[in-house]
Amino acid sequence: MTHATKLMNVQSSAFKYSFSRRRTLAALAALGVFSTSSVFAQQESFKIGAVYAVTGPASFLGDVSAKAVRLAVDQVNAAGGIKGRKVELIMEDSKSQETAAMLSIRKLITQDKVSVILGPSRTGDAMAAIPIVNEAGVVMLPPVSGVGVIEPVAQRKFVFRPGQGGDLSVGKVLDYAKRAGWKRMGVLYSSDAYGEDGRDNMRKLAGSKGVVIGREESFAPTATDLKPQLVNFRSANVDAIFVHGIGAPSVLVYRNAAELGLKTPLVSGHGQANSAFRKAVGEDVVGQPVVGAPVLIWQELPANHPQRAPSEKFAKLYQAKYGTAPDMFAGVAYDSAMMAIKALEEVGDDRTKIRDWFETRVKNFVGVTGTYTFSPTDHGGLTSDALVMMIATSQGWRLADYEK
Amino acid sequence: MDFSAIAQFVSGGVTVGAVYGLIGAGFSLVFKTSKVVNFAQGEFVVLGGLMAYTLIALFGGGTFSAVTAIGATLALVVGLAALLYAVLRQARKGSDEFTFVMVTLAVAIALRGGAGLAWGTEYKTFTLYPRGSVTVLGAVITYGALITLAVTFVVSVGLWLALYRTRLGKALRACADNPAAAQTVGIDPKRMVLYAYMGSGLLGALGGVLITPSLMMSYDNGVILALKGFTAAVVGGLVNPFGAIVGGVVIGVIEGLGVGMFSSDLQNAYSFIALLVVLAVRPQGLFGGRAELAR
After folding, report:
1. Do A212 and A287 share a domain, yes or no?
2. Nearest-CB residue to B9 (from A220, A224, A228)
3. Same domain for A119 and A56?
């Protein structure tokens, strides 16, 4: 394993080189633009740090997050910045690794002296970064689902989670289970922080909805064959299998189930609510329920749904800039950037004031993802409105009938 | 636990293991001739999968163009392997094997970064064979798995014929046994090592082409593939390419049974535990001679 460790270390420094060079180029380009205009004359800029998994296995969610926050910052700068001061976005790549995420966050805090941190992308990365942001007193906004990143609140004073919690996602699944008449469910989760959070939420909530967990199975984030787990579910006689994991194995679950001719329905948490998954999984998911976000099917939302208008606006902006429709993670990251910008506008760049702003002043903030209300006891701030149940179609998704 | 479930675990393990074995055979071929562990072996697999993805899309449908695309992929990766050896040969006289290993590590990182830039970070896949499966002893075996097993078998036979039934193979083995003596009878050891690298490129690329349709390929899969292939090679005996293929199947089956019958939490641990057991009981590997290891 020492070779693996060596590989990782050398790899990270190689990437760092390419990224810092890219950033230098970007900075030079930015200088070229702003030196000719006097819009942001003399004033020091506001600094927002962002850490997302732009590369590595979680890049399907980190990459779109990075694009979305870039969009938010460009938007505010184009409109003259915050009170005439430019917003500077300092972007770091966590490479889907906890160590890299922690190093990036340290750098943003001590070297770049940012006022607030957007990201990191994965539950595990955010968990690892909690002591760092607590010590430095900088607000961190990870677009993740893990409950552990915000609870217990007393030890998570500087973490506010803009992402839909795993408990909300599991709640949606159990709602669907009740309608479908599933009494005995299997749980198939990835053996990482995200997957285990889903399993724990299922253990906690299943009983209250009259569902029994018939069998639990896990898979490594690098798994290549999920048939053994699926065969075990078949012999456990479950009515449906709840899948909670991200990346390639979550695609293989559906593919292997089709190959085995498994009749048991699969239902996925919101980790699969993204275009990369939908594209890779192809026909194998058609007809299966997947928990998703309003932004993915804003066209089908009722006109009075609070997220319909913001989703439509964001989706069109994003489409115009990047040529693709935004994913759920893009919406979450965009909301976190817009909240950070609003905080800077209202209380300036004092880190403590920003924290207090998030805890006391975010009330019914209507975002793309959902309507946020943070409080001293709740740093999650979303309700089950922030998720919808979708059914996969041969083209993409549709809203489950009962959601309309 | 019914019998069909066990059959399913074993058949899945054999298929995955066959691919580990192909990768391991590449490790073994290079180690046999040059005593160097080539850590770029995993990148050959990734590039094989990704290049085939691009070329198959480029050449269009039809069996002929698919075969051409795969042929071109294999040729490109073999060329790359030759290039890697050309880089290694630039090392100063007196550099030891460890230096070469570090160079292969550096090349692996460069290739991985390059693949990330060229293909992006998304998983890629292509269709090579029809979807479908047969049922053997209650276990579902996909066409993809059957093709993987068939190709691995053909490659094993081909490799054996090349090593033991041709003059080139004889020269290669002579060079592996004793480079100095081989040189005195007119065999160029550097040329032999070059062939070994090209062979390892071919094996790796083939592995990549085989697994990408069913498992998908991402630019950064090389590390885990190299680790599993290396484990296969060590379990089988690092100096024996056929041992590596058997070693791959052994660890694949252990993984499949472990996941199915004990706990899926330890998926990646099973093969490495198997490695530790083999190293403790039989350090030369299942098929490695003690004398060959000692040298």
Report:
1. yes
2. A228
3. yes
> Does any domain span residue A36?
no
> Which residues in chain B have Cβ-Cβ distances shorter than 8 Å to A229?
259-260, 264
Distances (CA, A) of B230 to A310, B209, B223, B237, B295: 52, 19, 10, 10, 20
- Give Cα B60 distance to the centre of its chain: 28
Same domain, A265 and A200: yes
* CB pair distance less than 8 Å for B123 and A251: yes
- The yes-or-no verdict on residue A374 having pLDDT over 50 is yes
Backbone angles phi, psi at B121, to 5 degrees: -95, -5
CA distance B159 to B241: 8
Whether A105 and A179 map to the same domain: the answer is no
- Structural domain for A203, as ranges: 166-292
Residue range of the domain that includes B55: 3-294
Total domains in the fold of chain B: 1
ipTM associated with this complex:
0.80
Nearest to B113 among A15, A229, A260 (CB): A15
User: Is A58 found in the same domain as A118?
Assistant: yes
- The answer, for A57 touching chain B at a CB cutoff of 8 Å, is yes
CATH number at residue A189: 3.40.50.2300
Q: In the A/B pair of chains, how many CB contacts fall below 8 A?
A: 107
H/E segment holding residue A216: strand A212-219
Q: State residue A4's pLDDT score.
A: 46
| Residue A360, C-beta contacts closer than 8 angstroms, at least 6 positions apart | A375, A376
Contacts with A, B 199-218, CB within 8 Å: 211, 214-216, 218
Q: What percent of chain A has pLDDT over 70?
A: 90
- Mean pLDDT for B217-239 is 91
Q: Which residue of B has its CA nearest to A195?
A: B265
Which candidate in A224, A256, A259, A274 is best for mutational testing of the B interface (most B CBs within 10 A)?
Answer: A224
* Cα R_g (chain B), whole angstroms: 19
Confidence of residue B22 (pLDDT cuts 50, 70, 90): very high
* Predicted pLDDT of residue A246: 81
On whether the CB atoms of residues A132 and A105 are closer than 8 A, the answer is yes
Sort out which chain A residues have CB atoms less than 8 A from B259's CB and list them.
228-229
Contact residues on chain A for B39, CB-CB shorter than 8 A: 3, 7
Chain B, residues 26-65, CB within 8 A of chain A, namely 39
| Predicted confidence (pLDDT) per residue in A72-127, tens digit | 999 999 999 999 999 999 999 998 889 999 999 999 999 999 999 999 999 899 99
Per residue in B42-80, pLDDT (tens digit) is 999 999 999 999 999 999 878 899 999 999 999 999 999
